[in-house]
Amino acid sequence: MLQERIGVDKKETQIITSNLLGIFAGIQILMGPVIGIIADRSSRRKSPLLFGLFIALAGTILMATTLHVSMLYLARVAQGFAASVIWIVGSATLADTVGGDNMGKTLGTISIFTTAGQFSGPMIGGLLLETAGYWVAWSTAVGILLIDVVMRLAMLERPKKINIEHDDHVAHNYAACVAEQPLQSGIISFPDLSSHGVGPSTPVFDDSSSPSSSAITVERSVSITSNPANEIVNGSTIPRPATEETPLILTQSVSGNVSCSSQTPVSEISTLGFYLLLLRQRRIIAATFCSLTFAIMVSSFDATIPLHVQEVFRWGSFPAGMMFVALQAPGAVFGPLCGWLRDRVGVRYPTTVGYLLIAPLLFALGLPGQAAADWASGTSGKALYITILTCIGMASNLVNATGAVECALVIEALEREIPGIFGPNGGHARIYSIQGVAYTTGMLIGPELSGLLTNTVGYHVMTMVLAALALVTSLLAFAFLGPRPQTSSPPSVSPEHGTEGG
Q1: For 333-350, what is each residue's pLDDT tens digit?
Q2: How far is it, in rounded angstroms, from Cα 143 to Cα 187?
Q3: 32 and 83 in contact (C-beta within 8 Å)?
Q4: CA 283 to CA 208: how far, in whole Å?
């Protein structure tokens, strides 16, 4: 396309191709958090998904029709932005629909279709380009996007859960709640009920040592039907002045009455507070590192396997492509099974075992074709290399999607423990934006790291470095990831150390 259609010099083709790939990833890293914030503030998931699909459609049409390199860059910006929107909002929609307790098996099932698309996409595109021509190939891509738009229009969204109910007597039935925690200290005030005949907001807690940026304001009113801190006047419940013995936090019980707790605010945490809170959860940090490691590993394979098998085994493009089949095909069988296992026992043990299995396999991957390993040369070396890659593909199903499943569980545990903290639309999109940034960063680091190590110290040393990274990740997973999900009773949450058992 670059040389024949746009007329780019052959010497510049590789540079432009690398720039196009880098722009695609860079846009996802920069825009991921912003997209997550906007998506969680939207009351509907369908609208952001449609917006992302239309941007993808525009970027694809621009790339197909342009005759200028500058427009190619613009098209990749649009495609990178659209890919980030679709992935973040799509993952959040999935979590909203099936819940964290079922994310494992759901993502495992989806991996079957993802793998099928990865296999068939390049093959079908290349076949159409050679047999039917340039425009038929691109028209097929546009047609698939249009089908996706129709499917999004037909998508039924799950109704949002309402954590705090408003009633007709909100002017008289309200309370301000204070939680003296590191991320929540500041000014917490009553809602402004002046339109209901009540005076302006009055601060009830002021920690002068806390920055004003960490202040949280109560934005909702709650109906208080039973609380010793209130008194009944003419049939209405009126809050008494706060004293040292007044309960700090009010929560709504199953029966609808309000009970006291020290961990449940009724106000939505700020955007900065959200990221500070989540990035202090050790389970989130460990899950994000798992996503980063997996992306580095996968992208390193993409960058090094074709060149390595061509140099060592003298294989052409087709045998080299079959190596990726060995890596990805096991996901069609083991993906749903490993997903079901994660839902049953949690992500800690499958992820730990997965990386413990991958580490020695990566170490052995560099042996076939090495002069020092005569037993792994020739035909036996080729068979050993294929076998090791297949085993890595099987073990990868234990660690794939660890970040998505764990983050969904942590978000839901925090929302159960602190109802309303992430707002009426939850926090799934924002947390998946963090995972998306981590994964994309890994996809950028992997080729650079593996290429540098392969060129300077050799392929075997590169695989040993990846093996060491997998071993470290397994230890972090065992130490910090969560155990089996507890659906009957929510785990306790510490603002400093995350959910209990994490």
Answers
A1: 888 899 899 888 989 999
A2: 53
A3: no
A4: 32
